[in-house]
Design goal:
Helices cover 47% and strands 9% of the residues. By secondary structure, it is of the alpha/beta class. The chain has one domain: Collagenase (Catalytic Domain), CATH 3.40.390.10. α5 links the parallel β2 and β3. α5 crosses α7 and α10 crosses α11.
């Protein structure tokens, strides 16, 4: 079961207050059909106790009410909305008032896309998720099949939704660099990056089961490792105990 660790990262509380908007009250009950979708699709939700599940539902409903989730040549149903919101809430579950002030809209594409945001026949797209910048600032894009594959109700090590929302958390300080100031203070940054370098070396030497895409840079390492940490925490802790301990403190969450 996931729980919140009462581990205070110096400065995190202030930054979370700064980045959190006024919480709007939820005026409608959480639909029972949505509960069934979460139980079926979201491994993280299924492992929460009843209080935790209620907290998760409130956060999910708040996200859906506050953000536009738009299909581009594809339908967006309740399942897709819930999976997008779950992707956002899982890495910030320990911070109940946080609701991504840097996100205005989430676009859902029918397939993978390319760097020009083109999809379909002839587009040669291989991008499954992306955080927009410049003229796309405030927008997140997901491939619909990749998002659905990320939430099959089982413990996985791949989750495109969590990956991109961790990038958004990382970028709140102005740089997507693998050291999100919202979660990591200066004194903690160097030990964290040292552990990252150790694990990268293991990946290069085929001594780690972490996706080699994590070798791209420190920002991608954080996002890739977060997918694994949240979707298969027991396995992650068993195979990567030192890294698990750092991420447990960063996200203030633990598996039990």
């Amino acid at each position: 079961m996931y729980g919140i660790i009462f581990f205070a990262v110096v400065g995190a509380g202030f930054l979370l207050f700064y980045y959190s908007r006024k919480v709007k009250p939820i005026t409608s009950p959480f639909p029972l059909a949505w509960v069934e979708i979460l139980k079926d699709k979201v491994h993280f939700y299924k492992k929460l106790d009843p209080v935790g599940q209620t907290m998760f539902e409130i956060r999910v409903q708040r996200f859906i009410n506050a953000k536009r989730i738009t299909g581009v040549a594809t339908e967006v149903d309740d399942t897709i909305k819930l999976l997008v919101a779950s992707s956002a809430i899982i890495p910030t579950f320990a911070f109940p008032n946080f609701n991504y002030p840097n996100v205005n809209e989430v676009l859902i594409y029918p397939n993978a896309f390319n760097k020009n945001f083109e999809t379909g026949e002839g587009a040669d797209g291989n991008i499954l998720g992306m955080v927009g910048n410049r003229f796309m600032k405030g927008i997140v894009i997901f491939s619909k099949p990749a998002l659905l594959a990320s939430f099959n109700g089982k413990a996985n090590t791949f989750n495109v939704g969590i990956h991109e929302f961790v990038h958004l958390i990382d970028g709140l300080d102005g740089a997507i660099d693998g050291v999100p100031e919202m979660l990591i203070n200066n004194s903690f940054a160097l030990p964290w990056l040292t552990e990252v370098k150790k694990e990268m070396s293991k990946i290069r030497n085929n001594k780690s089961d972490i996706n080699p895409y994590a070798l791209t840079n420190e920002a991608e390492f954080l996002a890739v490792a977060s997918e694994y940490f949240f979707d298969a925490p027991e396995k992650f802790e068993r195979k990567h105990p030192a890294l698990y301990a750092y991420m447990e403190k960063i996200f203030q969450q633990e598996a039990g």
